[in-house]
């Protein structure tokens, strides 16, 4: 049965067939696919339940900052777009209840205005809150995990579920509590008090990132994770030392600014990124015997 027929009686959603999704990832990879935009919780429950009952697989799309979209997707993408009244952020709260589709940049602006301690950890990360929780977004100022209190999901059967966070809920670039198919729709997070110095720290850090990372280019953030065993084993540093900065293959370039970033300088697609990743992996193995895991979802 077609997606149009399957989803036709579900309110609070929009379905677009074979849509050009090139602008739906920060790397701007050429991509066409079916897109289901979810505007209400009931819509999300209805869609997940229906897809599950009909054995239709799907992919969740946040800002597309950490996944390489395929040139043509066999499965539909689901994107959350829940209503959010920004006046909710007009005051400092002890606990924030936020839709997962809100972007970290909106939250960062609130942190700058109010000096929220702990919120500096996600400065400059292009992500939705849901995507950030999914992989414990972080910078060298910290990680988002310790701020998260409860995570509200809809599971693949279309049922609501709430996870309470504890010390084991997050690790480096990873959450450890979601079940396969869980879709985060809401997050409760706090902060560690108010400190006027945080605003300056965030601004300084943004300036540093701007100097050291290609923020204006089309990238997916860091391509590789740093080594799990040895946090001093840094992918960017290794790729740089091998002299690979600037190497370009079919329009996909290793950033001259930061070697763990790849820049789409043309109209590249999935295969172009994977080809360059494979070259880097081979060189890293050959020259240093290290095998860096990709951070970006292929
Ligand atoms: N530190 C940095 O400077 C940077 C960090 N990043 C990281 O990349 C991530 C990008 O976020 P974003 O663009 O929003 O996400 P993406 O669209 O890149 O999705 C990334 C993954 O998160 C999953 N996901 C996204 N939203 C949800 C949700 N609501 N519920 C459950 N799973 C979800 C997706 O699941 P599925 O597998 O089911 O499709 C996908 O595997 C952040 O975690 C961020 O930390 C990115 C760039 C720079
Ligand atoms: C971009 C991401 O996150 C980034 C995050 O923005 C930055 C800054 O907080 O710290 C991590 O990068 P990173 O480990 O490469 O940190 P950086 O501070 O940029 O560099 C570390 C060290 O490597 C050196 N370095 C880096 C890049 C390069 O081309 N050459 C080089 O020598 C730097 O000089 C520095 O001494 C995160 N990456 C990972 C995989 O953990 C992402 O996750 O997508």
Automatic annotation (TrEMBL):
Q: Which keywords are on file for this protein? A: Cell cycle, Cell division, Cell shape, Cell wall biogenesis/degradation, Cytoplasm, FAD, Flavoprotein, NADP, Oxidoreductase, Peptidoglycan synthesis
- Protein name according to UniProt: UDP-N-acetylenolpyruvoylglucosamine reductase
Native organism:
Halobacteriovorax marinus (strain ATCC BAA-682 / DSM 15412 / SJ)
UDP-N-acetylenolpyruvoylglucosamine reductase C-terminal domain residues:
198-298
Coiled-coil stretches, from where to where?
Answer: none
Q: Give yes or no: UniProt keyword tRNA-binding.
A: no
Reaction(s) catalysed by this chain, per the record, are: UDP-N-acetyl-alpha-D-muramate + NADP(+) = UDP-N-acetyl-3-O-(1-carboxyvinyl)-alpha-D-glucosamine + NADPH + H(+)
Any idea where this protein resides? Cytoplasm
Its annotated function is as follows: Cell wall formation.
Q: Where are the transmembrane segments?
A: none
Any idea which residues are catalytic in this one? 173, 222 (proton donor), 295
Q: Which GO terms describe its cellular component?
A: cytosol
Q: Which GO terms describe its biological process?
A: cell division; cell wall organization; peptidoglycan biosynthetic process; regulation of cell shape
What gene is behind this protein? murB
What are the protein's GO molecular function terms?
flavin adenine dinucleotide binding; UDP-N-acetylmuramate dehydrogenase activity
Query: Taxonomically, what lineage is the organism?
Result: Bacteria, Pseudomonadati, Bdellovibrionota, Bacteriovoracia, Bacteriovoracales
- A Pfam cross-reference name: MurB_C
Q: What is its EC number?
A: 1.3.1.98
Q: Which HAMAP family match?
A: MurB
According to UniProt, this protein's pathway is: Cell wall biogenesis; peptidoglycan biosynthesis
Q: Where is the FAD linked oxidase N-terminal domain?
A: 37-159
The protein's predominant localisation is cytoplasm
Q: What class of enzyme is it?
A: oxidoreductase
- Tell me the InterPro entries matching this sequence: FAD-bd_PCMH-like_sf, FAD-bd_PCMH_sub1, FAD-bd_PCMH_sub2, MurB, MurB_C, MurB_C_sf, Oxid_FAD_bind_N
Q: Which cofactor does it need?
A: FAD
């Amino acid at each position: 049965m077609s997606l149009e027929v399957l989803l036709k009686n579900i309110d609070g959603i929009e379905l677009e067939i074979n849509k050009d999704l090139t602008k739906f990832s920060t790397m701007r990879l050429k991509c066409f696919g079916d897109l289901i935009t979810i505007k209400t919780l009931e819509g999300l429950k209805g869609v997940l339940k229906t897809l599950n009952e009909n054995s239709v697989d799907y992919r969740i799309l946040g800002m597309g900052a950490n996944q390489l979209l395929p040139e043509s997707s066999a499965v539909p993408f689901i994107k959350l777009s829940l209503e959010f009244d920004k006046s909710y952020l007009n005051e400092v709260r002890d606990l924030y209840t936020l839709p997962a589709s809100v972007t970290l940049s909106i939250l960062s602006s609130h942190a700058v205005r109010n000096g929220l301690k702990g919120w500096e950890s996600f400065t400059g990360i292009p992500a939705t809150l849901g995507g950030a929780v999914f992989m414990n977004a972080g910078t060298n100022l910290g990680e988002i995990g310790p701020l998260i209190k409860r995570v509200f999901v809809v599971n693949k059967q279309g049922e609501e579920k709430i996870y309470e966070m504890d010390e084991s809920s997050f690790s480096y670039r990873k959450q450890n509590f979601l079940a396969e198919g869980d879709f985060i729709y809401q997050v409760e997070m706090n902060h560690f008090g108010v400190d006027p110095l945080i605003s300056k720290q965030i601004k300084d850090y943004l300036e540093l990132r701007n100097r050291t990372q290609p923020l204006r280019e089309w990238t997916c953030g860091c391509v590789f994770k740093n080594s799990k065993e040895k946090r001093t084993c840094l992918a960017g540093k290794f790729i740089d030392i091998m002299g690979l900065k600037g190497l370009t293959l079919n329009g996909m370039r290793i950033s001259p600014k930061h070697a763990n970033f790849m820049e789409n300088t043309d109209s590249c697609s999935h295969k172009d990124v994977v080809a360059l990743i494979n070259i880097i992996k081979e060189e890293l193995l050959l020259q240093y015997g290290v095998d860096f895991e990709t951070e970006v979802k292929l």
